[in-house]
Write a structure and sequence with these properties.
By secondary structure, the chain is α+β, with helices and mostly antiparallel strands. About 35% of the residues lie in helices and about 15% in strands. The strands form two sheets. It has a three-stranded antiparallel beta sheet with strand order 3-5-4, covered by helices on one side. Strand 1 and strand 2 form a beta hairpin. It starts with a helix and ends in a 7-residue tail after the last strand.
């Protein structure tokens, strides 16, 4: 699987039900991790899309098992469709969704409110919510990771 296809599959798996804005938000976060100037994602991803996507425990859609249960919604079972490739290409061309432009994380809290800090170590602070996902920008603590 090419990096482009991997990225398109991730976009579909992580945010297909969120519409274009939600999928573009996820794509923006992934590319922000690829292009970040310091911290964990620079150290582990080294500016490489595949390394960022495949970093362990970052994306539920890369797991074939979650909490001891089979995860049928993963990138290996769900092929990308043309719209997912279009969004991947949009992000690979350097575009960003301004509503989440500085963010390095997102998650779906399955509730109407977002936590103010994510991840729990305080390295991200709430920036915005797009569809069902909460998006978080890095704090100064992130650059110490």
């Amino acid at each position: 699987m090419t990096d482009r296809e991997l990225f398109a599959r991730l976009i579909r798996c992580e945010a297909e039900g969120e519409g274009d804005a939600g999928m573009k938000g996820v794509a923006t976060v992934v590319m922000n991790r690829v292009n970040v100037s310091g911290g964990e994602y620079l150290r582990t991803g080294q500016g490489d899309l595949r390394r960022v996507i495949e970093q362990p425990y970052q994306f539920t859609c890369l797991l074939t098992e979650v909490y001891g249960q089979v995860n049928p919604q993963n990138i290996y079972n769900i092929p990308a469709e043309p719209q997912h490739f279009e969004i991947a290409d949009w992000a690979l061309a350097g575009n960003v969704l301004t509503e989440v432009a500085p963010c390095l994380w997102y998650y779906n809290p399955f509730s109407p409110t977002c936590e103010s800090v994510f991840p729990r170590n305080g390295s991200g602070s709430l920036f915005n919510r797009v569809a069902q996902h909460c998006f978080y920008q890095p704090t100064s603590l992130y650059y110490e990771t």
